[in-house]
Design goal:
Radius of gyration: 22 Å
Helix content: 40-55%
CATH class of the largest domain: Alpha Beta
Low-confidence stretches: none
Number of domains: 3
CATH architecture of the largest domain: 3-Layer(aba) Sandwich
Strand content: 15-25%
Shape: globular
Strand order of the largest sheet: 4-3-5-6
Amino acid sequence: MQFHIQPDSDIPASNQLFNQIRFAIASRQFPPGHRLPSTRQLAMQTGLHRNTISKVYRQLEETGLVEAQAGSGIYVRAQGHEGGTQLKSPILDKYPQAYKIVQQSLDDLLKQGCSLNQARELFLAEIDWRLRCSARVLVTAPAQDLGVGELMAQELEQALRIPVQLVPMEELAATLNRTNSGTVVTSRYFIGEAEEIAAPKAVRVIPIDIYDYVKEIELIKGLPKDSCVGLVSISSGLLRAGQVIVHSLRGEDLLVMTSQTGDAYKLNALVRSSRTIICDQASFATVKMSINAAREDLIRPPQVTCFGNYIGASSIDLLKRELGID
């Protein structure tokens, strides 16, 4: 991934770089275990001072997304279930590596097509625990950006065909206190806080990978200078991240307008001004309705691009295996 910094921007260069690296991690372009570029490499690529890059790496480490390994470098940290969350059992005190061995073996069986019922005879304790966790799937996101939680919950219910409960991050601890087991699902953007809340309880936290937006990024790179691009989503956080990334790619070359689906005034202004609109699936129908309503006043209707699922396909497959869904 190439990082782009606009030096004359009102957005601090460190904030631009921090958001781009966090996006690379959340979209799994930088998967767990990936070694981040050295400060020297990034300085050559972005023109930033190495002290600025070191500051960004410290911020990423403080949020729990990366970890420094002495003498080796900065690596993307395995999170949630990737990090080997363990059952609470006296057996594990005596055999600390036993859980990882059982888990890896079960995952290998599932990848080969073995069902959970077929594996039950081999790994009864592990399977029973997974089935208990599968009984309740909680999607969590901060209350200030519950829209992104709605995106995740809608897509998971459609893909998994099981009930999914959306819980604001601020209410997650209280919700988990009322259940004996479950699975918490969230974006890598929020994984650190979710893990901290779920750690004392018999609950798994599984981070999901988001869509990488490669097609949309290429579209933005190719837009003519001084074009107006509109971003529409039910998630305020997704809009903020998108605005920063578009700005990092094109600077002042493009005018960027954003609107949440429920803000009719801003959406109407965006439809009338934008040459290109990029939206999520949950917003697509509303965007088309707004364009139709304003059609008589439009010289040329904007081109609408609706990106794919917010959740990456590999994460859907992982969740199906983890939850024992055929």
